[in-house]
Design goal:
Blueprint lengths: L20 H31 L11 H15 L2 H9 L1 H25 L4 H12 L6 H7 L4 H13 L1 H13 L7 H25 L1 H7 L3 H19 L1 H32 L4 H12 L3 H11 L6 H24 L10
Helix pairs in contact: 1-6, 1-11, 1-15, 2-9, 2-11, 3-7, 4-5, 4-7, 4-8, 4-12, 4-13, 5-8, 5-14, 5-15, 6-7, 6-13, 6-15, 7-13, 8-9, 9-10, 11-14, 12-13, 12-15, 14-15
Length: about 350
């Protein structure tokens, strides 16, 4: 899911050219506010959908358009520096991309099988695993004193390749549970993810100064839109939630927790260093659950979207906690003093 985005220009923990202490403190406050308020907003939206589902069940057709709004705002935040950062570190970005699309889909299948999840829920868990990185990952990477530039690069590339990767992975792993129309899923991801992201990036290129004036309101717009998405998804499966909430929560906690751990381990195994390994943890363990919820609603059922709705709340909470632990153990950056 999308939350306020930290620029890749923000220095990593071990970069001696880190920003002045006052700027860093301000960014810290904004990032911590984002990962505190956003989960609370999503929880409130989910509670409303659970308490009064009949008021929102007719909103389901709006889900793809709402996701498109979120992805368009992500595109508006992209700059040429984001794409140049990918070209400068193809090995690290490629490793992050492979780790993300191998670890999370594989974990989704293993967890769904091990827990004996019903077909709808199993397909939903797998679909969450096959989704691209969540854009909130760069915020918690910043809080964890991780490599923000790597985080943004992996999140961006995983989103751009999602039309080519998510449908076949879902077909491979979830087809034993439910029928998967990979072609229709490919088209939907193109329309709701790739086109809006590219469109937003082009608008940023063409009207950068004007877009810069509204960048401050984009996080709030994204957060509110995502809250409405969760509201719709939860209201559509309110009855099922009461029966399967504990099982879904267990699946989500295992999926996210193992993803964070294995992502960090992959970075360490590749000798990327501490900051980059912390970035890898969040790029692997945090997912674009909004996309998963939209695809599950459109191609499976509201019940299949339940794991994505729960994941959207949990991964922000767990990400914030893990980032806090990592930041305490990481070397403190040396503030740059004015000349």
């Amino acid at each position: 899911m999308s939350t306020p985005r930290i620029s890749p220009a923000a220095a990593s923990a071990d970069d001696p050219a880190s920003p002045p202490a006052s700027a860093s403190s301000s960014a810290d406050r904004k990032a911590r506010l984002a990962v505190t308020v956003f989960p609370l907003l999503v929880v409130a939206a989910g509670a409303l959908g659970l308490a009064a589902p009949s008021h929102f069940t007719g909103w389901a057709p709006a889900v793809p358009y709402l996701l498109g709004v979120v992805m368009f705002t992500m595109g508006l935040t992209l700059t040429g520096d984001d794409f140049r950062a990918v070209a400068k570190r193809p090995w690290a970005v490629g490793l992050g991309l492979v780790a993300h699309y191998v670890i999370m889909p594989g974990l989704g299948w293993l967890i769904a099988t091990a827990l004996g999840l019903p077909p709808q829920l199993a397909a939903g868990v797998i679909l969450v695993g096959c989704a691209p990185s969540g854009t909130a990952s760069n915020v918690v990477t910043y809080l964890a004193r991780g490599d923000v530039a790597l985080s943004v690069s992996v999140a961006t590339v995983s989103t751009l390749v999602a039309p080519l990767v998510t449908p076949p992975l879902t077909l491979l792993l979830a087809d034993r549970f439910l029928d998967v129309d990979a072609g229709a899923m490919f088209t939907d991801i193109l329309k709701t993810v790739l086109v809006p992201v590219v469109g937003g990036a082009l608008v940023r290129m063409a009207a950068g100064r004007r877009v810069a004036k509204v960048l401050g309101v984009l996080p709030s717009l994204s957060a509110l839109t995502i809250a409405v998405l969760v509201l719709i998804v939860v209201s559509g499966s309110a009855a099922r939630i009461k029966d399967a909430a504990a099982l879904v929560l267990l699946a989500v906690v295992l999926h996210n927790g193992l993803g964070l751990a294995l992502g960090y381990a992959a970075g360490r195994a590749a000798r990327l260093g501490g900051p980059s390994s912390r970035a890898m943890a969040f790029e692997v363990g945090m997912q674009n659950s909004g996309l998963a919820a939209s695809l599950a609603t459109a191609h499976f059922s509201p019940a299949a979207a339940l794991p994505a709705a729960v994941f959207s709340v949990w991964h922000n909470v767990s990400g914030s906690v893990v980032a806090a632990v990592m930041s305490r153990r990481a070397p403190k950056p040396t503030p740059r003093t004015p000349d």
